[in-house]
Amino acid sequence: MNTIRTLLSLATFVGFLSLANSATAAHEAQPAQNMVHILDYIAVDYPSVVENSRVIDPQEYAEQQEFAARLKGLGNRLPATNDTTTMQAMVQTLVDAIEQKAPGEQINRQAKALARLFILTYDIHVAPASSPDLNKAETLFVSQCSACHGASGRGDGPMATGLEPPPADFHDLARQSQRSLYSLYSTISIGVEGTAMPAFDLLEQDERWALAFYVSRFSASDTERSQGQQVWEQGTFRNVFPDLTSITSVSPAQLAPENDAPARAVLAYLRANPGALGGATESTSPYLICVQKLQQSVDEYRSGQRQAAYDSAVAAYLQGFELMENTLGLVDQELRLSIETKMGHYRKSIEADGEVKDITAQEAELETLLHTASKLMEGDTLSPLMGAFSAFILLLREGLEAILVLAAIIAFLTKSERRDALPYVHAGWIAALFLGLLTWVAASFLFDFGGEDRELTEGITALVAAIMLVYMGYWLHSNASTQRWQDFIHDKLHGALKGNPVWAMVAISFIAVYREMFETILFYQTLWLQMQPDDRIYLLLGIAGAVVVLLALAWALFRYSMRLPLKQFFTVNAVLLYALAVIFAGKGIHALQEATVVSSNPVSFPRLDLLGVYPNLESLAAQALLLIVAAAWLLYGRYQLNRSR
């Protein structure tokens, strides 16, 4: 029986060698697909060939040089597009880097970025139209592949003896972890020039995909797949793997580091059970939205739609990354700032009509960073502790400014014996809560209120609040003398509720709360969706904890300020309001920059989000202007005070 199987395998192998030769012309007509195939091999093999500019394996390095030469030849025969010249230049850059024995990581990055560019430019399909039949694949593997690769895929089939290089061992984790399903499919379809691996392009496309899925299973264990199934059924990583393309275009090495087992396990499970994706709907997770918008942006840029590309890049930030940056900041603040900065540079490069290769490289780098961010945040699901902590920090940070404003206003009205105004102030901030909630409901269900509109609203309200706070700070300081305060009490204590200062306080109490409401609710909505249903109680506990802390801070500020002598009371509250005005101004300009209404010119300066300090010329200039105005008003108030004396 073994003899018969060996003879059948030999006959099959010889037959497919002859088919490979007859298909050569067809391959030559597909230079872009061949180039993607070669780039994949370079990305996988080169890093193990060169180390510290020194060739470790001369024979393998010579093979890499042959691949590079083949790559350059195919590049000269690419079908003409607007970007053909750019792509040929990128190919030459990669070829030169290989000749110069560049670091493996650099070659890996360049090859993958270039492969992605070819895939996008020539619309190369990197996933099957439907889930492949893996039962059929097993039969195909035995009849078409086992002669060389062996029945268990270890490269030890009866025809493997004497082949150089030897057939691939699909259990080789170091190599197979670098291979995507599309990479395997491409090898099956095109073959490997200079080896005994023929092209199986006479097989149907779905059969070749089925074989790619089947051989990928050898590099994972049943235990790993079982673990992946458990994680997948819990709802984790659904944003990373929303469809077949997401599992065919990524390798295990790209997806996760060695110590991040869950992501690899899920990929192993889905490779063996692609039908499990049938119930997965398109994710609306911030991470996936951000990646999709970035990919759309680079596609539009390459097709000459510059404004559309810029709009998509803005949407990637406002509709995607901004909704995940708060949680990411708790895990890795440096990574959060790096992504935000690079997204800004990416938009500026589009505005400046940068080179296509530079735009493509920046987008690829952003995708890599976003993958890292997603892995740090454990896919699309937050742990109970992280969810509670995120909710606590978010409300504490966003609510601190509003609670300081309210505490200062309530303390002032109490100190001035104008308690008749307190109901109006309370009505102001309570109305802001309800209006913020209604705005969110309307934006979610009634009309399109995108990220740009959200930032525009926040920016305008912040700047209005800053102006009013400067006015209130000046007014408080100008009434710091006992005589002036007595005059105010005499005029206003028994009169009707009127006068600019009182109404300004009511308006500020409204604006200070409303400016945070809509965005805060939106962030909580994102956190809610990222947590398991049974764990959402922890998010509510985080909110409750932040409310307690904010109320305690407000009470302490109120009690402390009420004990101050009159002049110190006015001075402390005036300084507090001035400081909040500067913070609001910085955040207002920053929000308008994110809405692309105000330009952003980076400068070398520390970034302090809590204080509204951002390293760009526009926001710093606005804050400096307010400080100058505040200083001028203070000097004028002191002059008036001395004159009255």
Per-chain topology:
Elements: H1 2-22, H2 24-28, H3 31-45, E1 50-51, E2 54-55, H4 58-75, H5 84-99, H6 104-121, H7 134-144, H8 146-149, H9 173-176, H10 181-190, H11 205-216, H12 222-233, H13 244-248, H14 252-255, H15 261-272, H16 286-302, H17 306-331, H18 333-351, H19 356-376, H20 384-415, H21 422-445, H22 451-478, H23 482-492, H24 500-530, H25 536-562, H26 566-594, H27 617-644
Antiparallel strand pairs: 1-2
Helix pairs in contact: 3-4, 3-6, 3-10, 4-5, 5-6, 7-11, 10-11, 12-15, 16-17, 16-19, 17-18, 17-24, 18-19, 20-24, 20-25, 20-26, 21-24, 22-24, 22-26, 22-27, 26-27
Average pLDDT works out at 75
Q: Work out the radius of gyration.
A: 32 Å
CA-CA gap between termini: 116 Å
The tally of strands reads: 2
Short précis:
The protein has 645 residues and is mainly α. Helix content is 71%, strand content 1%.
Description of the molecule:
The chain has 645 residues and is mainly alpha-helical. The protein has 4 domains: 211 residues, no CATH class; 60 residues, no CATH class; 91 residues, no CATH class; 191 residues. Helix content is 71%, strand content 1%. The chain contains 27 helices and 2 strands. It has a two-stranded antiparallel ribbon with strand order 1-2. It is elongated, with a radius of gyration of 32 Å. The protein starts with a helix and ends with a helix. The N terminus is likely disordered.
